[in-house]
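Q: Okay, next protein. This is S-DNA-T family DNA segregation ATPase FtsK/SpoIIIE from Lipingzhangella halophila. I've checked the sequence twice, so it should be correct. Can you predict the 3D structure?
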Amino acid sequence: MFHSRNAGAAQVQPTSPVPAHAIRFATPVVETPAVFLLTRWVYRAVRSVVLAPFRFPVAVSTLAGSVATVHYLGWVWLAVAVLLAGAGLGVWWWRWPVAFRSLVVLRAVAAWRWLWVYRRHWQPVLVVAGLAESYQERQYLPQIRKVTCTEWADRVRVRLVAGTAPADVENRVVELAHGFAAPSCRVTVAGPRDVVLEFPRRDLLAEPLAALSVHSPVDLCALPMGLREDGQPWRMRLHGTHVLTVGVTGAGKGSVIWSAIRALLPAIADGTAQVWAIDPKRMELSYGRALFARYADSAESAVGLLETAVNAMQERAARYAGRQRTHTATADDPFVVVILDEVAFLTAYHPDRDIRRRAENAIATLTSQGRSVGFGVLAALQDPRKEVMNLRNLFPDKVALRLDEASQVDMVLGEDARERGANAHLIAPDVPGVAFVRLEGSPAPVRVRAAYVTDDDIAAMVADYGARGLRSVPGAGVA
Ligand SMILES: Nc1ncnc2c1ncn2[C@@H]1O[C@H](COP(=O)(O)OP(=O)(O)OP(=O)(O)O)[C@@H](O)[C@H]1O
Ligand SMILES: [Mg+2]
């Protein structure tokens, strides 16, 4: 992205009479006069001193106060002042620990991180990452404007070099994360020429997350699923979209499916949502069978369930035609989510060609037409290659759990996902449930971890919510 200032010097004129092999190029060396360098250093030094009270008001006033105390009152009074200040901070910490942490501790950490990590390594890391040139010109080096700290991460606000774009930085997040020894780096745009780089100081997703508590009313567009690496809750949209969850065996697809079902429970209970479950392995979903309006485990019944869903969807679309363009979940017209574990069993692995064809047709129809009439599909898959699942592009939202190969990341999350840091193939096997997702409105993938719904949790869910609100959906016949 950055080019040497002499890059244009070696152009050959096509009309030149001199043969190309005879041309010798010499890079012109232009020495900057020493007086200019000296003036610049002096200017920078004076500017740093003048700006210091504004940049570091606490540090400068503490220093000035200490010097004045020693000068006018002597060392003893400085020691007394230090003791009093220490006691004051101690009382503050004891009485108001939260305010003390955010106003004192995190600011001290930010100052330290700015000095020791970012300022110290800034230029080398940016040069190696390909975001700056190695010469010292400040105008070619993105500038750190501010470092702040939250409990879990550093936020570095950066002024970009003119002529570069946030996408240039987004494409280097892996290098930046390694350069500053962080588990990841996330870029957000913070102004016309500013971006904020977020570097987690510790991995919030390292520990498993217990099943989340169930909240009512249910927001079908933001179901609580787990935790994002920035400490915020991970919420997933199901209404108005379809979600494909991909991961190798043991990656935690079950925890994504069960977290979604768990978040839907109050809506299942009041009849505004229904889960239609397909469980070819008979391992994942059978345990919560009483929660589902429909359930299928054999290939034949699974295809029948999918075709029933298509009929019900088309009946609803016919009713809505010319009357309404969007669906609102009600007990009469509930939101129906078809959950398909190991979808490749039906679309690729089943020996009967007719079953494969019917399943593909039904899934394609549901995913291409179901969105606006309140039919969604949540499918799980181990192998995202086209020959196994050629319908993956019909799923607008994807969850990439641990994958086998680097090339699969872009297959699941979209072309530039790996460049933007979604290293799903590097997720360790000992953190099942960790995944990369793309959130609405942001092209940068985010690392998340699904909460783990244990067998005991499922048993409790069945006891509390099973067999409630399971009315039949118009057009679907008898359940
Ligand atoms: N979110 C999670 N947090 C902690 N542990 C988890 C999580 N998800 C799954 N696990 C653990 O990993 C194991 C495998 O998970 P799971 O059965 O969901 O994998 P899967 O992707 O569905 O695999 P398969 O394709 O073989 O069905 C679980 O038995 C559980 O011990
Ligand atoms: Mg599974």
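A: Here is a summary of the prediction. The CA atoms of residues 205 and 449 lie 6 Å apart. The first strand starts at residue 143 and ends at 149.
Q: Noted. On to the next one.
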